[in-house]
Q: What sequence folds into this?
């Protein structure tokens, strides 16, 4: 029996995906922008594949983590398959369809648990988040070796990773890729997508919204321009304002110790602007000495002090039995402190993307100005680079780098996180 979904009206990008896996290729990667309808299309195609597959074996569904499987991928599959479900064991992530076909849900965190399965097909959702996609892909191929089943993945791109290597750079004849942007999803408000694009830098918008593979290499903060972010304009506007709170951004490295000091103010267009007005940069120092330096510079500040920075500063020191943050709170208590320190640090990639988007977004709007006297912060934004051949920040090339930019990044991620914005702006 051929399966049809009466309530599912796929847009053109989704239609192209369904056609590709059913008529053109054995293995397909649907690579698209966020909220483009990847999981919705993947769930319905996997129901169809599981229902119509011939031979003995289970149908496999994989998500990067168990939480993603439970909250998104498996839930979407169950909703699509609801009229065809005979038995549903949610705790074990096993569904039996009315034709007897069993569907098993797995996490990419434990690929070895998939090895003993014989599969008639598989679907991997949001595979860019899988830690070692190449190894997982090899395991999945082994599951359909004897059945000649089909497999597909649905994902957004993530630089030139394993997915790009398998489906683009070293493409085999039976492998196909279908790509489309977030704008293809006609159920989304275009103005909402544009709002989200204004939070992203140009390169990140190409990846997240346009679904394009983009190389992230060389300079980490590639949107930073000394003349435009730390030039004459910055000298004029990024000056200490006694009527605004100081945003203290702390990194707790000992040598150097780097604390950018910023203030936030709305511009004439109502957009928040970050002004880095000063920096505390000390060699072979400690938190107490940095606090004393702050008090020496701003003895009469009365407009409040916001604290941002490294969550690991909560850890106690054996020498004092106090954490760095407790020391700061004690030393600077009379400045009317508001603590904005997270319980755990944001993902490095998310923090970097938030910083780049504020420095210069895809609409060429710059919302960070650094006073030229903040030479170490400027040097960080210009010189911090990726490790060769990876998307990881190189923290070993120059031990004096990364500290100031990391600290500033904690402020930006806390107040202007892209992780929160990407979902709040796009609801379907």
A:
């Amino acid at each position: 029996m051929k399966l049809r979904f009466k309530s599912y009206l796929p847009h053109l990008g989704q239609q192209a995906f369904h056609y590709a896996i059913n008529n053109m290729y054995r293995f397909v990667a649907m690579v698209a922008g966020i909220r483009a309808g990847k999981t919705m299309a993947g769930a319905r195609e996997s129901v169809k594949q599981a229902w119509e597959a011939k031979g003995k074996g289970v149908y496999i569904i994989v998500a990067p983590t168990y939480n993603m499987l439970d909250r998104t991928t498996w839930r979407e599959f169950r909703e699509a398959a609801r009229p065809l479900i005979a038995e549903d064991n949610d705790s074990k992530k096993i569904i039996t369809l009315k034709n007897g076909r069993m569907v098993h849900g797995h996490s990419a965190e434990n690929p070895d648990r998939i090895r003993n399965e014989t599969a008639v097909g598989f679907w991997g959702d949001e595979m860019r988040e899988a830690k070692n996609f190449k190894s997982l892909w090899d395991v999945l191929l082994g599951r359909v070796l004897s059945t000649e089943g089909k497999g597909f993945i649905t994902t957004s791109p993530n630089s030139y990773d394993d997915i790009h290597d398998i489906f683009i750079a070293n493409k085999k004849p039976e492998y196909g890729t279908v790509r489309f942007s977030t704008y293809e999803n006609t159920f989304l408000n275009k103005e909402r997508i544009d709002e989200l694009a204004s939070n992203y830098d140009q390169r990140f918008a190409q990846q997240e919204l346009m679904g394009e593979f983009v190389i992230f290499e060389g300079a980490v903060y590639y949107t930073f321009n000394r003349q435009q972010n730390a030039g004459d304009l910055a000298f004029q506007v990024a000056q200490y304002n006694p009527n605004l709170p100081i945003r203290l951004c702390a990194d707790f490295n000992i040598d150097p110790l780097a604390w950018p000091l910023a203030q936030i103010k709305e511009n004439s267009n109502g957009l928040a602007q970050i002004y880095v007005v000063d920096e505390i940069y000390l060699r072979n120092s400690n938190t107490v000495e940095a606090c004393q330096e702050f008090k020496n510079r701003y003895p009469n500040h009365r407009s409040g002090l916001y604290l941002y920075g490294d969550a690991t500063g909560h850890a106690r020191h054996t020498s004092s039995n106090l954490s760095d943050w407790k020391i700061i709170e004690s030393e600077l208590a009379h400045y009317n402190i508001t603590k904005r320190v997270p319980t755990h640090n944001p993902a490095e990639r998310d923090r970097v993307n938030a910083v780049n988007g504020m420095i210069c977004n895809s609409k060429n709007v710059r919302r960070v100005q650094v006073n030229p006297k903040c030479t170490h912060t400027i040097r960080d934004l210009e010189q911090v680079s990726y490790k060769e051949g990876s998307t990881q920040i190189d923290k070993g090339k120059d031990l004096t780098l990364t500290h100031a930019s990391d600290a500033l990044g904690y402020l930006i991620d806390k107040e202007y996180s892209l992780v929160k914005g990407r979902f709040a702006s796009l609801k379907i």
The first helix runs from residue 12 to 23. The two ends are 31 Å apart (CA to CA). The mean pLDDT is 91. The chain has two domains: 12-188, 226-424.
